[in-house]
Amino acid sequence: MKRVCAQAVRSFSKARVALNASRTRPLLHQDQVTATSASFFCSAKQDEKKTAEFVIKNGKERLSSADFFKNVKEAVAKDVAEEEFVLPKEAVDAVAAEYDALREENADIMDKYRRALAEAENTRRIGQKRVEDTKIFAIQGFCKDLLEAADNLDLALQSVTEKQIAENPQLGALHKGVAMTKTELLKTFAKHGLVPINPQGEKFDPNKHDALFQMPAEVAKVEPGHIAQVMKTGYALHDRTIRAAHVGVAKEN
């Protein structure tokens, strides 16, 4: 009887120990998980802090190289001597990324600078050309008014024949004076860049000539498309036509 009771007591003790073990094991496992999570969280915070120290650009302003490397050293190796300090890979990557960003920014700025420089140069040239044209062609209106006077001198000279000049000495002297006046007027025109256009026999150019009529090439004795007769002399001011010559053009039969 005593032996049976002793065995029962031992069995009960083993069962209680097993029960206590099953109750305490989950609590121990939960503590381990909590400790591991806390360790991981702290490590992530440290990594985040280190990553923040590797940032070169602070808002819109960039840190100087001295400040950047100082922050890196304080973040990863605060107690290490300067001569023994080795730059971590994260800092090198940050410097490389910032270098690439600066290269792109510099390329964009240089492109805008070159475009602005070219535009300014074009504007300067256009302005200079306009100033020069203004100086050259400022007398254009005045020249046009004088052309009528030159035309009247031509008509006066053409209205007198050589026979009339020979028969009337006074008329001959007057004719000579008109011719001298026209010569001096043409010299003055040439001095200021105004030259006559007398395209007799030249190929018709609509930019310089104004066709009034056409005539057969056989009668005009010039090639078709060429000027057969000049009715009124044209004029050009510094290679710019200010009055087209009035002409007759030869055509094919």
Automatic annotation (TrEMBL):
One of its GO terms (biological process) is protein folding. Residues 92-163 form a coiled coil. It comes from the Eukaryota. It is found in: Mitochondrion matrix. InterPro entries: GrpE, GrpE_CC, GrpE_head. GO terms for cellular component: PAM complex, Tim23 associated import motor. One of its GO terms (molecular function) is adenyl-nucleotide exchange factor activity. Its main location: mitochondrion. Keywords: Chaperone, Coiled coil, Mitochondrion. The keyword Chaperone applies. SUPFAM superfamilies: Coiled-coil domain of nucleotide exchange factor GrpE, Head domain of nucleotide exchange factor GrpE. It holds the Pfam family GrpE. Essential component of the PAM complex, a complex required for the translocation of transit peptide-containing proteins from the inner membrane into the mitochondrial matrix in an ATP-dependent manner. Belongs to the GrpE family. This is GrpE protein homolog. The lineage of its organism: Eukaryota, Metazoa, Ecdysozoa, Nematoda, Chromadorea.
